[in-house]
Specification:
heterodimer, A: mainly alpha, 78% helix, globular, B: alpha/beta, 4-stranded antiparallel sheet, 10 helices
Chain lengths: 330, 284
């Protein structure tokens, strides 16, 4: 590893550690750093320990995992579609997963069959992906950027309409739960959701990172990838399945959180280039940091009220993205 | 098919695009001998690119077969094939920032697994490819800052980094000025002559093909209009008929090793010259 590569991983690790510490030590409950530290070591009073160990730490961990999932899937979509604007939210795939999740909630099946919600979210993500790719390919043969984004927006709008339709038949409690999914929110974090997401993320991330070289080639061109020894069809199939899984799993635990998959890989590409062997793990680390920061803002800026995390990522993310885009066009 | 010793060989090869009545490649039998500089010529839409796609396994024949080294192209494991055949495709739209070295190092991927880092032999192959294409000093430059000629040389370097026996190029000089076009053909000939590589090049430049190729295949509507040495193929009546334009043929005036090579001179439409007799008669 070169000096600059060591510096890069060191910087990302420090950022990750710093944001993790910040999101555990900063919160709506007025706790001093000493109290938090004591709680982390298993000392201090009962309430503080509960706040720190059962609320703040799992929430920070969940934010980190969701951020990693979304940034990783964004980076993979961008390579597969050769399009810097591809992202699970923009492509309507998060929306598809949300339809699956909300359907399970509205039908009242979530309580008896807890495994059904992630499965339905996964099915919704796959359907959304299939429809978007079908529209984008059918309209022009090649994957045209504008057609692809338009397809994503249209499919996303359609799924939103379905969710609103489902909500018409829902009672007040279901309504609240469903809106939670549409706005993106990490307040439901538990150790159970953390371990669920970790069980999806790490195997999928390993598979996707093993495909980093094929992604480098596909980002240049699918024919080029074939000429350089890649079984393009197989790689794409595996990658779409893995990313759908990641998006579905994050939607199942946190709802629809947009723009993380757009901003994080884009920023990293501008600074460090596009080698996916670097980009995929770097996106996971930076995505984890990004969502921990935005979630900390979401739960403290209007304390004791909490903002939906998805709203904060969009408010923070869109201007950052516009600036990055304008700078890259110079 | 028995062993032919040919680099590429096709037998009654046919490819029909879905929904098309007319096949793009229509019962083509041809051979590319090892060590040759093989030029694939023909008007727009004559099937050059489709033939390359069949030889490279991008599409599967609808009838007949295409072989590389006596094995059907579809039966080659893709990584193994990529260690034998380096390709410079016609069009690549590079969306993300990439340096020349990063692009060229992709040529080593067929030699590496998923996790193995670049070894010293990989770095050596990359350096040699950069040197061969005279782009050593451009190695750290982003591709977006290069001229068309430089970018094309970077893509040839990527193919050379594969250390292939065979190079296939689809109109590699389409957007290049004469300096870069000449340099490209000279490089390809050197690779065949000095390194014993087989070079297959699809091109619209009849005159450079006539000067540098050892074998020529002229395609017309997916069928061979003529095949052989440049002198056998580049004739006024053949070229005039296939391209439906009056031409005359002159010998290259020299100086140089290719003095006397047949050179195509297209005539003005109203010239009524020697070449126009045969050609205007068969226009559709």
């Amino acid at each position: 590893m070169t000096v600059s590569a060591v510096a890069r991983w060191l910087a990302l690790s420090l950022l990750l550690a710093a944001t993790l510490v910040a999101s555990v030590f900063v919160g709506a409950a007025d706790l001093s750093p000493g109290e938090v530290l004591a709680a982390l070591l298993g000392r201090g009073d009962e309430t503080t320990r509960t706040i720190v160990l059962n609320l703040r730490v799992p929430r920070a961990a969940l934010a980190a995992l969701v951020g990693a999932c979304l940034a990783l899937s964004g980076a993979v979509f961008q390579a597969l579609l050769r399009n810097p604007l591809a992202e699970p939210y923009i492509l309507g795939i998060s929306g598809g997963a949300a339809v699956g999740a909300v359907t399970v909630i509205v039908l009242g099946l979530g309580v008896q069959l807890p495994w059904l919600l992630p499965v339905a979210a996964f099915a919704g993500a796959l359907v959304a992906m299939g429809v978007v790719l079908r529209i984008a390919l059918g309209a022009g043969g090649a994957l045209d950027t504008r057609v692809l984004l338009l397809a994503g927006v249209v499919v996303g709008a359609f799924f939103n309409a379905i969710i609103l339709l489902l909500l018409n038949f829902a009672d007040a409690n279901t309504f609240r739960a469903a809106v939670f999914w549409m706005m993106g929110n990490l307040s439901g974090a538990t150790w159970r959701s953390v371990s669920l997401l970790a069980a999806y993320l790490f195997p999928a991330a390993l598979v996707l990172m093993a495909l980093a070289r094929p992604f480098n080639l596909i980002a240049v061109g699918e024919d080029t990838a074939l000429y350089l020894g890649t079984r393009v069809g197989t790689v794409k199939l595996v990658a779409y399945l893995m990313t759908s899984l990641l998006v579905a799993a994050s939607v199942a635990v946190s709802g629809v959180i947009g723009f993380v998959g757009l901003i994080v890989p884009h920023a990293l590409r501008l600074v460090w280039g596009s080698d996916h062997r670097m980009l995929l793990p770097a996106s996971m680390m930076a995505g984890a940091s990004f969502l921990m920061v935005t979630d900390t803002v979401a739960r403290t800026i209007a304390a004791p009220a909490e903002l939906p995390t998805g709203v904060v990522t969009a408010l923070a993310g869109v201007p950052v993205f516009v600036v990055l885009l304008m700078r890259s066009n110079k | 098919m028995m062993s032919t010793g040919q680099t590429f060989a096709t037998n009654a090869l046919e490819y029909r695009y879905p929904g098309q009545a007319q096949p793009a490649i229509d019962g083509l039998t041809m051979q590319v001998p090892p060590g040759s500089v093989f030029a694939l010529l023909g008007p727009n839409g004559s099937g050059k690119s489709t033939l390359l796609k069949l030889l490279l396994g991008v599409v599967t024949p609808t009838a007949g077969e295409a072989h590389y080294l006596d094995l059907p192209v579809g039966r080659w494991p893709r990584r193994e094939y990529a260690r034998h055949v380096g390709v410079v495709p016609q069009l690549e739209q590079i969306t993300f920032p990439l340096t020349v070295r990063e692009l060229v190092s992709m040529g080593r991927y067929p030699h590496m697994g998923a996790w193995r880092a670049e070894g010293s032999d990989d770095r050596q192959a990359i350096d040699q490819a950069l040197e061969r294409c005279e782009i050593v000093e451009l190695a750290e430059r982003p591709l977006g800052t290069l001229s068309g000629g430089e970018r094309q040389r970077a893509r040839v370097a990527r193919a050379l980094a594969q250390e292939p026996d065979t190079l296939v190029l689809d109109e590699p000089t389409a957007a290049l000025d004469i300096h870069h076009e000449m340099a490209m053909f000279e490089l390809l000939v050197q690779l065949a002559r000095d390194d014993g590589k087989t070079v297959v090049i699809a091109t619209h430049n009849l005159n450079l093909a006539a000067r540098y190729a050892t074998r020529v295949l002229l395609l017309d509507h997916g069928r061979p209009a003529a095949t052989g040495t440049p002198v056998e193929v580049v004739e006024a009546d053949i070229i005039g008929r296939v391209y439906r334009w009056p031409v005359t043929i002159v010998g290259h005036p020299g100086p140089g090793p290719d003095i006397g090579a047949p050179q195509v001179v297209p005539l003005a439409a109203a010239s009524g010259g020697e070449g126009s007799e045969g050609s205007t008669g068969v226009s559709e």
